[in-house]
Amino acid sequence: MPKPLVAIVGRxxxxxxxxxxxLTGQRTxxxxxxPGVTRDRIYGSCEWNGRNFDIVDTGGIEPGTDxxxxxxxxxxxxxxxxxxxxxxxxxxxxxxxxxxxxxxxxMLKRSKKPVVLAVNKCDSVGHTNPDVFEFYGLGLGDPxxxxxxxxxxxxxxxxxxxxxxxxxxxxxxxxxxxxxxIIGKxxxxxxSLxxxxxxxxxxxxxxxxxxxxxxxxSYFENEHGKYRxxxxxxxRRKSKVDDAIEKYSNLRTIASIERSDVCLILIDAxxxxxxxxxxxxxxxxxxxxxxxxxxxxxxAVEKDDKTMDKMTENVRRDLSYMLYAPVMxxxxxxxxxxxxxxxxxxxxxxxxxMRVTTGMLNNILADATARVQPxxxxxxxxKIYYMTQVGVKPPHFVAFCNDARxxxxxxxxxxxNQIREVFGLTGTPIRLTVRQRGDxxx
Length: 442
Ligand code: GDP
Hints:
This protein is 34% helix and 22% strand. The longest helix has 18 residues, at 66-83. The two termini are 37 Å apart. Helix 3 links the parallel strand 4 and strand 5. It is of the alpha/beta class. The chain has a seven-stranded mixed β-sheet, sandwiched between helices. The structure holds guanosine-5'-diphosphate (GDP). The site of guanosine-5'-diphosphate has 16 residues, from helix 5.
């Protein structure tokens, strides 16, 4: 069953991001400084009283002018109502109750979802701030006094969330099932691809529901394996609200990516890579997911023998941060190469779960450093003592060295490429963390 989701909504500047960081324990993603890659982590996970769930900050890009605020908040609320199991509405005790707060509170109430009201910036502990009382007027029950800066009140918030999460269904996820997210901008052919797959294969198809959230996955198996396509509710039968949400929010995409093992990033062959595609692909890359770049509508393109190479070149140039991802050309309409997708999905899923022994890694390291000497600075040379793998999905390596400042990005890239080459590793990002002797936990 999908992990339950808690959404945070509220006016700009009420302290949503700070609260989000407090609740998720400030899990920071290792992110490259690459254009097109979003840096704001607005999706994190949380464990409280033995329950695991995700938290999302629906804030995203905040509006600049006052008259946009209400619209912005309504969108947030709509997204939260559509996706979340529990909603945290954040207000600001210093500003007091605003008309926009009241408007959104009404929307949330009508949704019948569990909502908890956090009154933030109650920074002094020990006595109730009298300014909190007016927030009873929102009709969302007892407001909880919170200080995102100091962290107090967050335990009460999490208690409320956990109490109102959907029951666990106790079903263990089958390890062999590969979770696939089909992502891409509107009209790129996501629904067509899914329907082609589900419609044509002689397969067992079922909807996997089980939460109050309307994220319905499609499960199916064929001779290649077992697959669960993530959040396919809106793809199988397009509904108005799904369209509306898709238009202005990449939140649903982020949620799907987070729950997936493999992302199929759809690009429209007629248009090439657009800015929106770059952003969406960046989300999958940032999340460290195995990726396949799927150029769809290949049937609709006038082709000669160079078209595919040219298109590949464009994809490589515009999505240069994910050179590891294989590129495939398909037609969801005719079914061309759709079957081949499965081999590729299996391949990249395997790679992202790959484990390498420390012994093997260090052989590679010895070879690599012998071939290209590590950089020096003012007579001091980088020494890499050893490497070890600390995680999978994606493969995550740690390199211990004498001086992290000498470990330039280009040399990291070089090592990364050596590892990729030796293990034939494609389709998955790799994380490399550099540790210096004397760093904590060594
Ligand atoms: P979604 O919004 O990403 O789910 O996109 P849809 O699956 O609804 O497709 C949008 C439009 O593109 C529809 O009119 C489809 O018929 C069309 N389409 C999707 N895949 C293909 C394809 O491979 N070739 C062609 N020619 N049209 C396609």
